[in-house]
Amino acid sequence: MRVPPSRANPMDGSVAVAVAVAAAGLLLLAGVAHAEIKTTPIVSDSRPIILFEQFGFASGGRATLSISRAAWSVRPGSRNASVDASLMGFVLISGAQFPKVNNQTEYADADPGGGGRFCVLTSEYALPVLRLSDVPPGGATSTVTIDNPDEYAVVFSNCLNGVAVTMDVRTEMYNVRGGGGRRDYLPVGLQPLPVIYAGVSAVYAAFLAVWVWTCARQRATVERIHALMGALLLFKALKSACAAEDTWHVERTGTPHGWDVAFYIFGFFKGVLLFTVIILIGTGWSFLKPYLQEREKNVLMIVIPLQVIENLVLVVIGETGPTGRGWVVWNQVFLLIDVICCCAVFFPIIWSIRGLREASKTDGKAARNLRKLTLFKRFYLVVVGYLYFTRIIVSAFLAVLGYRYLWGVNVAVEAASFAFYLFVFHNFKPVERNPYLYISEEEEVAAGGELEMDDGAF
Question: Which pTM was predicted?
């Protein structure tokens, strides 16, 4: 449908920026399914663009919007003496049409004669859903059937500068499966997630069972760090199980039925334990030395509170959604904290490597120090690769993959995580006559020259 263009007051900023930033934030939360039946209150909001939802539709999918208690007011200083409610409403923008809407916005902003007067509500490339002029006092509902499968963004567009809107908005997005017309509330690209997360949970449960069995067999050499590693596996398995239940319930009912709360709780403990275990292994605590130095304690005192804050921010992002005024800021805070934590874990590993190199020059145990040094160097490289892949490479995957294959990102992250866990748990498992601690005389002599050649790195 083509909507005839109309003149409106200038809009604050670009549609492209608003939608693209919000889309990036939504993808950040790919680990837990979003409820696809939502009721969102909007209170005295004058933003020109509000992103409500993104959803991957198959042909025949439906988007239903219900608006109630709609009201508006003119803010002091606005040029609008009256309000034309037909210039405020909801549209759907597909991924294929978004570049065209973006071009219209940029052209209007660059046109000195047009005054930047463009509104996405009037774009011929946006699919109109419901305008506030069509909402009676008792509320209204509009359903749009999707003919062209794609990922669509549900956007509220306010073409009137200085006009604040208050309303309750209920969104319901789903695809229709099979001849029976069963509703599937997961986007096309996330439909395999329940099976994926159930499989991941089973794998980590088996991993935990093997770890407990290994620790029981080597009880004499078990250290405190091994108990923390077991707890990490437990919370990873529980988090994945909750993610499977969350996505399963969202798929069938549109809401998580409380499983998102369990997901956040177990995800919190898993996140804190993961960084704690990496730092403690990097320091050599428990299996190489029974204490932490002051600087190592300081790193822990920085990272653990930051992990608490990061997980709280994640809950805020997930529960408020892109409609919140500070949602983009919360995403930026989350990314900043995550980067700080990732950088902080490297320091104990580097300190251990330098300490082992210095010790090799004074204690006469060249072979033992060489093996320890080799292990910590490998650990350093694996940690760097794991964090780089799950933070940077995954973003590239998101940019390349089509909306139908977003589940592939989750598979890639889980595969990288499992490989990382395997490396760490294999190399730091409790064993008798640890090869990094028990060295023969011949190896001691042969290692002296290697340490001299190795000197200088890090």
Answer: 0.82
